[in-house]
């Protein structure tokens, strides 16, 4: 063992605890205390255990601590199909039709189906109380808070406003017509807006302002009004995102994460001042950016922004990782998915230290006297695009673990996520 990691491995041995079953997660639930936001990460978007363990934590947080909704790194319109189902407002969603944007496997998978079935059963046992009520009881919801669904969000906004005979429908149609020449191509719009000043910003900002005013006067518990407002917010921020994306730099990342925080807070406000939220996103979003080299590049993220806005006692972030296993990913954006081999964590990395401390699943809660975790260490991050043979050159983020997370879950050997696909993924390599 390299001398510089010996203290880290020894501290992990002393402070970590084995995960032999769901009950062992209770220590994390209790450590979260009375936090308003519990952030559950993942080191990839294609690992089964990250989903199943987050599901177990979600169940405990809902049942024992009264958490009201789950917010995920997904599109608001697509996730509304799941939200309606878990609240008893519709039959089972057509998962592949609902999540038809690449990478479809992130939410169209067997693990999410199991979570949705549990949430529906939980709500049904309580009589499907409705999204919100003056008594503070209500159904547990499921929402997407990402920024990518510009066209789908505009369509949903128009559909809702037209179905309710709202005068704002004309504003929405005018805004949508501005985007139509770009044929649902965000990059095409971004080029036109960034370099030729052909922007639709004014139209979507006016629409959002009108819908905010409308919902402020709406009856509490109107999911339709909430949906129209969030979809309009998506349009505003997606317009900014695509405009900045073609110019490069960190601004598009920051727009996206700021959007996710604003959407999350608006949904929380809909559920009431005491509402608690569970967030499912990649470690790169929920682990405080200030504890990584992201800060050096001027990047912020959801974990940092929530801590800054609400204070550290109200935000509890749980990172997830693995030493080795398999994962669902693709070789290029939009390419067919594959089941790929995740190689052992590189020597000197956080994953390697967790392995050396004992080749079993474990978790650790940060806090107190743990100076060994107060210096940067390489920490693996796998995206939807992945090349295992090259990961040591770009998949490790220097991280001060005790500052980035409040707790960490380590799965020694992981399995690939189970996507709902018409055809199976290619074999492991």
List the helices and strands and how they pair.
Blueprint: H1 6-15, E1 17-18, H2 26-31, E2 37-40, H3 48-65, E3 69-72, H4 76-86, H5 95-98, H6 110-125, E4 141-144, H7 150-163, H8 169-179, H9 186-196, H10 201-216, H11 223-245, H12 251-271, E5 277-280, H13 283-286, H14 302-310, E6 315-330, E7 337-342, H15 350-356, E8 362-365, E9 377-380, E10 396-399, H16 401-404, E11 407-414
Parallel strand pairs: 2-5, 2-6, 3-4, 3-5, 6-11
Antiparallel strand pairs: 1-8, 6-7, 8-11, 9-10
Structure commentary:
By secondary structure, the protein is of the alpha/beta class. It is 43% helix and 14% strand. A hairpin with a 6-residue loop joins β6 and β7. The model is unreliable at 131-137 (pLDDT under 50).
Could you give a short description of this structure?
Strand 6 and strand 7 (337-342) form a beta hairpin. Mean pLDDT is 90; it is low at 131-137.
Taken from the alpha-carbon principal axes, the silhouette is: globular
Whole-number average pLDDT?
90
Number of helices: 16
Radius of gyration, in Å, reads: 21 Å
Share in helix: 40-55%
- Derived from helix and strand composition plus strand pairing, the structural class reads alpha/beta
Q: SSE string, helix = H, strand = E?
A: HEHEHEHHHEHHHHHHEHHEEHEEEHE
Largest sheet: 9 strands, mixed
Number of strands: 11
Low-confidence spans: pLDDT under 50, at least 5 residues? Answer: 131-137
Give the tags.
nine-stranded mixed sheet; 429 residues; two-stranded antiparallel ribbon; 16 helices; globular; alpha/beta
